[in-house]
Design a protein that fits this description.
The complex is a heterodimer of chains A (about 80) and B (about 400).
Chain A: E1 9-12, H1 20-30, E2 37-42, H2 47-57, E3 61-68, E4 71-77
Parallel strand pairs in A: 1-2
Antiparallel strand pairs in A: 2-4, 3-4
Chain B: H1 2-10, H2 15-33, H3 40-53, H4 62-67, H5 77-95, H6 107-126, H7 132-136, H8 144-164, E1 175-177, H9 185-216, H10 218-236, H11 241-246, H12 255-276, H13 288-304, H14 308-316, H15 320-338, H16 340-347, H17 356-359, H18 361-388
Helix pairs in contact in B: 2-10, 2-12, 3-15, 5-9, 5-10, 6-13, 6-15, 8-13, 9-10, 10-14, 12-18, 14-15
Classes of the chains: A alpha+beta (about 80), B mainly alpha (about 400).
Chain lengths: ~80, ~400
């Protein structure tokens, strides 16, 4: 697990609340290629539990969940077919 | 110390154990104060107070005769408990360095929050309770109306999801290549320290309020302390009842729903004991009001993004959107009070107050409640399976 890897895309969800956070994250992940890394930034504390649970349930790897004061940052990887 | 602080005061708590703790605490709260953990009734009384500033006489309205509108919030069990919840949630958010003014994404969202808040407040009061009194603490009262409300809320949430995801309520995605800048760690550390100290100062103040309320009565003092604990727990666990109902339809989340059902299972045996010892359970009419109220409530909370407990701790974290949702709740509840003679006369009052412990006897009622909770757990698990296979095509 390497959280220092630079994300391919960053999704800014500041100011949005649920369910838009979760829906937008899954929508963005669906457009990405296997092996790519998505960064999600929210300011809604509730997404702290929600986004990792949703990402995992939908088959993605949530590599990191960080709190920066009132901001939350998630790193989610689209799994590559090899290794599955 | 610093690792303890990170673990308990900064990292959020897992929702399932937090909800079980809330269930146990709510049963003790009932045994000590004689009333259940509930918030919307108090919000509606605030609406009554505001109306009385404008020369109206809400204390003569029949709904406020049911609810009671004596004194100020500080003289009422519900009132000091709600104050305690706000302070408890604010203390916890400060300790975690999680207080910050969060602006809503757009004006449209804010209007959506107000409208959703009004619908949710109206639905909740029509059914005589919100996610608490008609659900989380209503089912452990063995009141049949709470079961009707729970299932109607899930149905209402489905309608809410359909509306919430309409194109005119969506914003375009803000996506950019590469990472985005996070706040400067040093400035963040200073800010976190300030909030940490402020949180403890606030707790001292809260204890002073508690001592003052204990002088008035044991029930008021205890209610305030329980309020602190309830508010603290929902903030620490980020307990979102809205998510439990809504995400059955959006992403298949299960944790909060399991937690709520297990929390109620923990509460039921405690409230059962208190009722056996003579505390009167709070039972309400099993009429169309519970079903209609549940559907409106479910729709409203999804549209608003949070329910009556959800907006409370989020408002304390500085999420401005939820200040507006709270105002909406008060307006919605007050509307029910204003039109109660028509609404209650048609939808609630002619119908019986059904108590499972009387209908099926104490053992039968308790057993049926646990069977119902087990069945609900199984339904949540079965529903989640629809989503787990969503990425077969990888």
């Amino acid at each position: 697990m390497n959280t220092e890897r630079k994300p391919d895309l960053s999704l800014d969800l500041r100011g949005e609340h649920c369910p838009y956070n979760a829906i937008a994250t899954l929508e963005t992940l669906r457009t990405m290629q296997p092996g790519q890394l998505l960064e999600v930034v929210t300011d809604c504390s509730q997404s702290f539990h929600g986004i990792p649970e949703d990402a995992t349930r939908h088959g993605y790897h949530c590599l990191a969940v960080e709190q920066h004061g009132p901001l939350f940052r998630f790193l989610i990887e689209v799994p590559s077919p090899t290794g599955e | 110390m610093s690792s303890l602080r990170q673990r308990f005061f900064v990292n959020f708590w897992p929702p399932i154990p937090t909800l079980v703790a809330l269930g146990v605490a709510s049963a003790y709260y009932f045994a000590i104060t004689g009333t259940f953990w509930a918030v919307t009734g108090e919000f509606t009384r605030w609406g009554g107070h505001v109306l009385s500033w404008f020369g109206l006489k809400p204390q003569e309205w029949s709904y406020f005769k049911i609810l009671g509108l004596q004194g100020t919030p500080l003289d009422r069990v519900d009132g000091v408990m709600v104050l305690g919840m706000f302070l408890g949630a604010l203390c916890c958010a400060l300790w975690a360095g999680n207080v910050g003014l969060r602006r809503p994404a757009s004006l449209r969202r804010l209007v959506q929050g107000l409208v959703g808040g009004i619908i949710a407040g109206f639905g909740a009061r029509l059914a005589m309770g919100c996610n608490l009194a008609a659900f989380f603490t209503g089912i452990p009262m063995f009141s049949v109306h709470a079961w009707a409300f729970m299932f109607s809320t899930v149905l209402g949430a489905w309608i809410g999801v359909k509306i919430t995801l309409l194109p005119f309520l969506r914003h375009s995605l803000r996506v950019q290549a590469g990472g985005s800048a996070m706040p400067d760690p040093k400035a963040l550390a200073r800010r976190t320290e300030r909030q940490w100290r402020l949180g403890w100062a606030l707790l001292l103040l809260a204890f002073a309020v508690a001592a003052w309320r204990f002088e008035a009565s044991l029930a008021l003092g205890m209610a305030f302390l329980f309020g602190l604990a309830f508010g603290g727990l929902i903030e620490r666990g980020q307990i979102c009842f809205t998510s439990a109902a809504r995400d059955l339809w959006t992403t298949g989340r299960t944790k909060v729903a399991y937690g709520i059902l297990l929390g109620m299972a923990a509460a039921c045996i405690g409230t059962f004991a208190a009722i056996r010892l003579g505390v009167a359970p709070k039972i309400f009419w099993m009429g169309p009001n519970a079903v209609l109220g549940g559907v409106l409530f479910g729709l409203g909370i999804v549209l608003a993004g949070g329910c009556e407990t959800g907006w409370m701790y989020r408002a304390m974290e500085g999420q401005m959107h939820f200040w507006v949702v709270g105002v909406g709740n008060v307006i919605g509840g007050t509307l029910v009070a204003a039109f109660w003679d028509e609404l209650g006369g048609a939808l609630a009052l002619p119908y019986p107050k059904l108590n499972l412990l009387e209908l099926f006897g104490p053992v039968g009622g308790l057993l049926l409640t646990y069977l119902g909770l087990a069945l609900s757990l199984a339904l949540v698990a079965a529903n989640a399976r629809r989503f787990s296979h969503a990425r077969k095509t990888r």
